[in-house]
Structures are given as structure tokens and as C-alpha cells.
Design brief:
The structure is a single chain. By secondary structure, the chain is an alpha+beta fold. It folds into 3 domains: 2-103, Zinc finger, CHC2-typedomain (DNA Primase, Chain A, Alpha-Beta Complex), CATH 3.90.580; 129-226, no CATH class; 228-331, Dna Topoisomerase Vi A Subunit, Chain: A, domain 2 (3-Layer(aba) Sandwich). Helices cover 33% and strands 23% of the residues. It is built from 9 helices and 16 strands. Strands 6, 7, 8, 9, 10 and 11 form a 6-stranded antiparallel beta sheet that branches. Strand 15 (281-285), helix 8 and strand 16 form a beta-alpha-beta unit. The chain is globular and about 55 Å long. Bound molecules: zinc ion. Zinc ion is lined by residues 46, 48-49, 56, 67, 69-70, 72.
């Protein structure tokens, strides 16, 4: 049983990786919008929302798309799921079929090597941030956790760091250091591949906030290294775990249920986390609201593709997420 489970899961992941790299993202998206070359990317009108000037970008080298208007982003598989309503396995099979032009073997090898180089650089950056971090006790990271109703001892996967928000990977230029709660992101083997930083202000009493000149809000949470497939983990190894979207909810669920809890640290990653063979059952803990429910729905399918049992949990109706429920903050 153990062998079959992990074999099926590995086969599904292998098929997905193969399917993602098989075509140009522009050929997949190009069936729904006209794309024009613009520097290293292709741009066009967004197929997900109605607009007059193009804010939809496709990067063929990376096999990804992103819309600056509505925020949709992903790869060939998520595009087919979200635009054409396919299920995960249907999208994989479609891409493995011969409906679209296929990239040459040489080009795929070249892209794979470029990807591997870029991934190695990003992991090295995440490890250098983690190496510069200190235990959370007595730091603004602890102040922040307490302000969110977390009274338990913080797990070793949470630390405090002073690190730049701005980094230009092309020029090597970095901005000044800011205080942050650092959450470790580990891959399927438990190796550190990323760090999610929750930037803090006022000695940790609140999250970093800044409105840019164009009126947009700077993000309090930035992820360095690799997020896709990785997870922030709290608690011992267990065959039955909970998974949720953010670190605050993960700390809340760990404290309130005593179970092993993982956070995907991003909505899209909730249906991309790679589970090791020893995880047999996953309880997906979502946010209330449409976005939360749709993220959970995709995640159920992803868990079940791996031959695992999936259950769900939501906060009480009156609250947006589990941390708001803990603190009694109603919608
Ligand atoms: Zn859009």
C-alpha cells in the first residue's frame, strides 16, 4: 500500500512536470488572446478579465503567465484549469497529447538548465537569509506572534531576521534592511529552499505598511527562494496533517488543535505542495469567502491525485480566517 501510494503520486508529479515543459506557454494562452513580443516576454489582453490595454504577460522561458490587472498567474496546467475548466488530470493529459506544437528536445534541455541555474541562485539567497536569522524569542517576531494571539512557544521554523526588501538580481543592488518574521519553507525532503518574510513595523506590533507613489500598496509578505511545492511546517512528522494558506493560520491551528500543520504560504501553492510518502491524510483548512473556497477545492483534487484522503475545515461563518476567529475579529 505504501509503495503504491508513493508510486502513483510520483507518476502524477512526473506527468505534470513533463506536461508543463512540453509546449510554449504562449501557444497555450495564445488560443484565447493575441500575444505580441515585448522584451523577454509576450503581452496581450488578459483572457481572465475584460480590459482595453494589455496587462497579461507570458514568459515562455519560464512557462508562466501573470496578469497585472487581475493578479491571475500560473503555468500551462493552471491556465487550462482556470480558463477552460479542465480538471488537473485532464489538463495534464491534454498537454501530453498532440493538440499543440511541441518544443524541440534541445530547447527543452536548454530551458531546464537555465531553470536549474536560476533555482540554485534563489535557494542560495534563501539560505543566506536564514543563516542571518536568530531565534524568535525576545524579538519583534515574537511580539508580532503574540499580537496575533499566539501564546505557545514559537516553533524552530519561525525566526527573526533583518533583511532587505529590495534586491536586483541583475545588478546585485540591495536596499536597506527591514525587520521581519522569517518562516522556513522546506521541500518534500525537508530541505530549506525558501523563506517567507513577514515584514514588521513598530517593534513587531504591526505588519509593514507603505503606499507607493502610484497608490498601490507594498506587500508585507515577500517570499525568497522557491515557493512552488514547498511548505512551512510546524509540528512533528505525522501521517495525518493539516494544511492552510498562511503562517498566521498555521500557528493558530497548531496552537488550538495540537496537530501537525503546514502552510502553503500562497494561494496557488495550496494545490502544489509536494507531500512526502509518509503523509497519508490531509485536512485542508481554508479561509471563508469565494477565493478561500475555490483554493480549497483545487487543493482537494491535488491531494487526491496523490492517492491521499482529503478533508476540509473552515472557520466559523462570522470570521474570515482561523486567526481572526482566535482573536474574535468578526468580518
Ligand atoms: Zn487579468
Amino acid at each position: 500500500m505504501k509503495r503504491r501510494l508513493s508510486h502513483r503520486y510520483e507518476a502524477a508529479i512526473h506527468a505534470a512536470v513533463e506536461a508543463r515543459g512540453r509546449h510554449n506557454m504562449s501557444d497555450v494562452a495564445g488560443r484565447h488572446t493575441n500575444l505580441k513580443k515585448h522584451g523577454r516576454e509576450l503581452v496581450g489582453l488578459c483572457p481572465f478579465h475584460s480590459e482595453r490595454s494589455p496587462s497579461f504577460q507570458v514568459n515562455d522561458a519560464k512557462g508562466t503567465y501573470h496578469c497585472f490587472g487581475c493578479g491571475r498567474s500560473g503555468d500551462a496546467i493552471t491556465f487550462l484549469i482556470e480558463k477552460e475548466g479542465m480538471r488537473f488530470t485532464e489538463a495534464t493529459e491534454y498537454l501530453l497529447g498532440d493538440s499543440l506544437p511541441v518544443i524541440s528536445d534541445e530547447e527543452r534541455v536548454r530551458r531546464k538548465e537555465a531553470d536549474a541555474r536560476e533555482a540554485a541562485e534563489r535557494i542560495a539567497l534563501a539560505r543566506s537569509i536564514w543563516a542571518a536569522s536568530v531565534p524568535a524569542a525576545g524579538t519583534p517576531a515574537e511580539v508580532y506572534a503574540r499580537s496575533r494571539g499566539i501564546t505557545m512557544d514559537l516553533p524552530p521554523s519561525v525566526r527573526f531576521v533583518m533583511t532587505p526588501r529590495y534586491r536586483n538580481t541583475d545588478t546585485g543592488e540591495v536596499g536597506r534592511d527591514y525587520p521581519a518574521m522569517a518562516c522556513a519553507l522546506v521541500d518534500v525532503d525537508g530541505k530549506l529552499v525558501g523563506v517567507q518574510c513577514i515584514f514588521l513595523a513598530d517593534g513587531g506590533r504591526r505588519k509593514y505598511e507603505r503606499t507607493r507613489q502610484d497608490g498601490s500598496k507594498a506587500k508585507a509578505k515577500l517570499t525568497f527562494g522557491i515557493l512552488t511545492g514547498a511548505a512551512f511546517r510546524i509540528g512533528p512528522r505525522s501521517d495525518s496533517i493539516m494544511v492552510c494558506e498562511g503562517p498566521e493560520d498555521a500557528l493558530t491551528l497548531r496552537q488550538e488543535t495540537g496537530r501537525t500543520v503546514w502552510a502553503a504560504c500562497g494561494t496557488a501553492n495550496l494545490s502544489q505542495v509536494v507531500y512526502p510518502p509518509w503523509v497519508k491524510a490531509v485536512c485542508i483548512a481554508g479561509d471563508n469567502g469565494d477565493a478561500g473556497h475555490s483554493a480549497v477545492k483545487k487543493s482537494i483534487e491535488w491531494v487526491e491525485v496523490g492517492g491521499r484522503s482529503a478533508t476540509t475545515a473552515f472557520p466559523l461563518e462570522a470570521f474570515k480566517d482561523f486567526n481572526d476567529q482566535l482573536r474574535g475579529i468578526r468580518k
